[in-house]
TrEMBL record:
Belongs to the glucose-6-phosphate dehydrogenase family. Keywords: Carbohydrate metabolism, Glucose metabolism, NADP, Oxidoreductase. It catalyses: D-glucose 6-phosphate + NADP(+) = 6-phospho-D-glucono-1,5-lactone + NADPH + H(+). One of its GO terms (biological process) is glucose metabolic process. GO terms for molecular function: glucose-6-phosphate dehydrogenase activity; NADP binding. Residues 185-452 form the Glucose-6-phosphate dehydrogenase C-terminal domain. This is Glucose-6-phosphate 1-dehydrogenase. The active site is at 235 (proton acceptor).
Length: 467
């Protein structure tokens, strides 16, 4: 959590959409937890269209924080409530920004957090600029950053007309997850890992993001998006970058982001022939989903990296809804050992694996083999991050704290966003045919064919599971 850039810490946080779904589930809880840790050192101004007083809003906020399962302590919440001011108004109305400017006052360092639909990013930033509220300020925006390469470039151009790149914080909550951050330290602080982390040792990499629920009540949002845009273009490609980048030369945010951009530039554009799209049975009956929807709720694809370290190592990514479990992991599968003829019944041992579990209960596993009862048996060396490293910051705690303290290393830069869209653009232009799959299965049969000749898909390592 150490700031790495010389920007001043912000003394004012403005949250646009403070009564919305993201604030209800994540933002208010994160701010309360930062207050509990003694790390919230700024005013909080909430902006939304609902007409209510500050007192009414803080009462609502307490209920919403408690509804997340967070224990609310009276003294901690009162300290948080004393920081809060609520403003209601239409974000397209210039009068709102005049009132906001008066509330902020002169000579303050602000973070404007836009928890709003992407169509409002441009209009809000332009209103902030017209009200002279962008000086010495940053603007944080939630994904999606466009819906393809062209729209991402257009959005960047519109925002960059008023903001420098250093002022623009693109929020991807995966970058705030403890195990994603821990990848950097596992790789570069441990020579035992560094020596294995390349094509000389790794035969294939599998990155899985599985959800054991469907679209539910989000059909209207999800149907124009699909799994590729929802989680692969952003979350999983950022994880891939963390897994494969070279070590940063210093602690600067841009040095880290340079390394991620470099490796994404080396990723070949995806081949639609090496992808599989699926849709679970019953998806089209979801409210808000088109009756003839061609949207994928599952996608699997193969990527390759054209650089010295990773050439000829296949990276298999899959993500989907209504799968058997909820789990996100990275699995490096090492080359096979040779057949060992001195054994009573010689055969090849199972390949060693390095597994990083991102969700649930982050942890790391080294899978080895040993001989038991004259046959190979797996040996698991497991570690739980929470048990070994202490209670981690939750993603939005970490991201909000980083934004407020001037550490931009956990936010996505323009070049990485555009490279990620470049990689998946062929899958948007020429999508593979949709294959149906049964809810509770591991997706369509074609996903297995994608890894033919390579290690098969492995079921994720779950808490308490031996395999």
């Amino acid at each position: 959590m150490t700031p790495t850039d010389p920007r001043k810490s912000a003394d004012t946080l403005i949250v646009f959409g403070i009564t919305g779904d993201l604030a209800r589930k994540m933002t208010l809880r994160a701010l309360y937890r930062l207050e509990r840790r003694g790390l919230l050192n700024c005013r909080v101004i909430g902006v939304a269209s609902t007409e209510m007083t500050t007192a009414e809003f803080t009462a609502q906020a307490r209920e919403r924080i408690a509804a997340t399962g967070q224990t609310v302590e009276d003294d901690v919440f009162q300290r948080f409530a004393d920081r809060v001011t609520y403003l209601h108004g239409d974000v397209t109305d210039p009068a709102l920004y005049l009132r906001l400017a008066a509330e902020i006052g002169p000579d303050h360092t602000s973070v404007h957090y836009l928890e709003m639909p992407p169509t409002l990013f441009g209009p809000i930033v332009e209103q902030l600029g017209a009200a002279n509220l962008l000086h010495d300020a940053c603007v944080a925006v939630e994904k999606p950053f466009g819906h393809d390469l062209a729209s991402a470039r257009a959005l960047n151009a519109r925002l960059r007309a008023l903001l420098s790149e250093d002022q623009l914080l693109r929020v991807d909550h995966f970058l705030g997850k403890e195990p994603v951050i821990e990848i950097e330290y596992l790789r570069f602080a441990n020579p035992a890992m560094t020596g294995l982390w390349n094509r000389g040792s790794v035969s294939a990499v599998q990155i899985t993001m599985a959800e054991d629920f469907g679209v539910e009540d989000r059909g209207k949002f999800y149907d124009p998006v699909g799994a590729l845009r929802d989680v692969v273009q952003n979350h999983l490609l950022q994880v891939l970058a963390a897994v494969t980048m070279d070590p940063p030369a210093d602690a600067g945010a841009d040095t880290l982001r340079d390394r991620k951009a470099e490796v994404l530039k080396a990723v070949r554009t995806a081949d639609p022939r090496r992808s599989v799209r699926g849709q679970y049975t019953g998806y089209r009956d979801t409210p808000g989903v088109a009756a003839d929807s061609d949207t994928e709720t599952f996608i699997a694809l193969q990527l390759e990296i054209d650089n010295w370290k990773w050439f000829d190592v296949p990276f298999f990514l899959r993500a989907g809804k209504n799968l058997p479990v909820r789990a996100t992991e990275v699995r490096l599968i090492l080359h096979r050992a040779p057949r060992l003829a001195f054994l009573p019944t010689p055969h090849q041992a199972e390949q060693n694996q390095i597994v990083l579990r991102i969700d649930p209960e982050p942890g790391a596993r080294l899978q080895l083999v040993g001989l038991g009862e004259e046959t190979w048996r797996p040996l698991y060396l497991d570690s739980s991050f929470a048990q070994e490293l202490g209670e981690p910051f939750e993603p939005y705690e970490r991201l909000l704290n980083s934004a407020l303290t001037g550490d931009h290393s956990l936010f996505t830069r323009e070049d990485s966003v555009e490279e990620a869209w470049r990689i998946v653009q062929p899958l948007i232009d020429e999508p593979a045919a949709i294959q149906p799959y049964t809810p509770g299965s591991w997706g369509p049969d074609g996903a297995g064919s994608l890894v033919h000749g390579r290690p098969p898909w492995h079921e994720p390592w779950l808490p308490g599971a031996e395999r």
